[in-house]
Amino acid sequence: MRLLFVHAHPVPESFSTALCQAAIESARTRGHDVRVTDLYAEGFNPVMSAEERRAYTGDELPPADLLPHIEALQWAEGLILVYPTWWYAQPAMLKGWFDRVWRPGVTFILRTPTEPMRPALTNIRLIGVITTFGSPWWFWTFLMGAPGRKIILRGLRFCTAKRTQTFWMGLHEMDSQTDKTRREYLARVKARIARIPV
Question: What are the φ and ψ backbone dihedral angles of 166, each rounded to 5 degrees?
Answer without folding.
Answer: -135, 155
